[in-house]
Amino acid sequence: MKTNRRDFIKISTIAGMTMAGEATIASPKGTKHTPQGQAFNMSGYAAPKIETVRIGFIGLGNRGPGAVERISKIDGVEIKALCDIRPEKAEAARKLLEKTPHKPDLYSGGAEEWKKVCDRKDIDLIYIATPWKLHAPMAVFAMEHGKHAAVEVPAAVTIDECWQMVNTSEKTKKHCVILENCCYDFFELLTLNMARQGYFGEIVHVEGAYIHALLDANFSKTQYYDMWRLKENLRNGSLYPTHGLGPIAQALNVNRGDRMDYLVSVSTNDFMMGAKAKELAATDSFYKQYEGKSFRGNMNTTTIRTVNGKTMMVQHDVTSPRPYSRIHLVSGTKGTALKYPEPPRISKGHEGWVTDEEFKELEAKYAPPIVTKVGEMAKQIGGHGGMDFLMDWRLIDCLRNGLPVDMDVYDAAAWSAVAPLSEKSVANRSASVDVPDFTRGAWKSNAPVDVQLLKGGTTRVRL
User: Which pLDDT band holds residue 35 (cuts at 50, 70, 90)?
Assistant: First the structure.
């Protein structure tokens, strides 16, 4: 069969993309991270109980201070260290704790100060809320130094980093928890419990998204340190998938009875970011460094097929002037749930959505134990309506009571991997790309997260 040079290059490129999900990958340090041979299955693993969870926070710009304040209200924790490269950010976070028993040490002023926090012997958990490219290196370093890691989203930006996190967590038996707060939003928890109890029948298709107008924020000189988030937008794909993806992956039992098999991804052209850079550069020379750059497309749509034949659609658009949406659609053989546009809705057929009264009855019947236990307190404390606090409380409660975490390292890797895999697909005319099996086959027997056990232990909250 004849193959011309252009076809050969195209076929070779696609083949290389497919193999990238399975082949051994070399890290920048020269070590190799391979999907072969699970050292230890972290799914369902209950680490030894920690009576008082001693925490070091790294990254106190956007998400970090809120986490410090929320966790200070949970009994059974000690905040031992606060770290940010900017001294004023570390000091501002400490002021949040002035009326609490917590007296943390501050680390700042140098790019390597965070390592000193991980080196400490009196810390059990490292809470990471730094720019994306630092997430995986910090999580891996923390686990290598005997600490559990809780890392903001996305947990990694390359496939190699995903494997590093998985390998290190298995080797050290330290948790690497992705801080996906949207998994703890109230409607998402409700629909997860309904899915577990068969309300929707066999779930066939799910959708999630991150649609959020952040054009001005991305170009702000003060919003993100060293313009890091604007620089991330020079990549083209589904760059921030986990807010929409996490809850629907749990609904489908991804990594616990099913797994993501392959994806295809397509992006529109950029119709706004390049124009914004040009507009700003006309009056401010600072922005000339971004003028003429190739930014990601306005809208990215990524479709994922699971091994069990289910489909997932994830969208990403952070520039178009659209109302905020994570979509959150769960579609099964007996019913459907949809959150956006508000209000959340449930349907049992093509006739339409259930009435408000019926919806309240469903809420009362299917509210997970974590919501009935600490939901009202979470709403008072706050953090995106309370879901941030539910996430933090659940993490601490699991560590204190020796419970398996809800989102393990395989979730951190698989959910985060959608970003770099989507970039490869977009760059190659939406060719399909295999999603690595970070569980190395254990997904077939891993038990789904038991929603009824989300009530946790006896960890108290101080309002």
Answer: low
Query: Helix (H, G, I), strand (E, B), or coil: what is residue 164?
Result: helix
Give one DSSP letter per residue of 64-117, joined into a string: HHHHHHHHTTBTTEEEEEEE-SSHHHHHHHHHTTTTSS---EEE-SSTTHHHHH
Residue type, 440: R
Angle at 78 between CA 116 and CA 106, to 5 degrees: 35
One-letter identity of residue 215:
L
Q: Helices 409-427 & 242-251, crossing angle to 10 degrees?
A: 120
Weakest mean pLDDT among 35-39, 222-226, 246-250, 335-339: 35-39
Which of the 8 DSSP states describes residue 139? Answer: H
Domains of the chain: residue spans and CATH: 182-373+407-443 (3.30.360.10)
| Mean pLDDT within 107-131 | 98
Ramachandran area for residue 454 (φ above 0: left; ψ -120 to 50: alpha; else beta): alpha
Q: Which two tokens stand for residue 348?
A: 């049992």
CA distance 296 to 235: 6
Span 298-314, pLDDT tens digits: 999 999 999 999 999 99
- What tokens were used for 20? 């990238």
Contact (CB, 8 A) for 189 and 452: no
Q: Residue 215: is its pLDDT beyond 80?
A: yes
Tokens of 240: 């921030």
- In the numeric block, the tokens 């604007």 are attached to 230
In sequence order, what DSSP letters do the residues of 220-287 get, joined into one string?
Answer: -TTTSGGGHHHHHTTS-S--S-HHHHHHHHHHTTBTTTB-EEEEEEEEPPPSSHHHHHHHHHTT-GGG
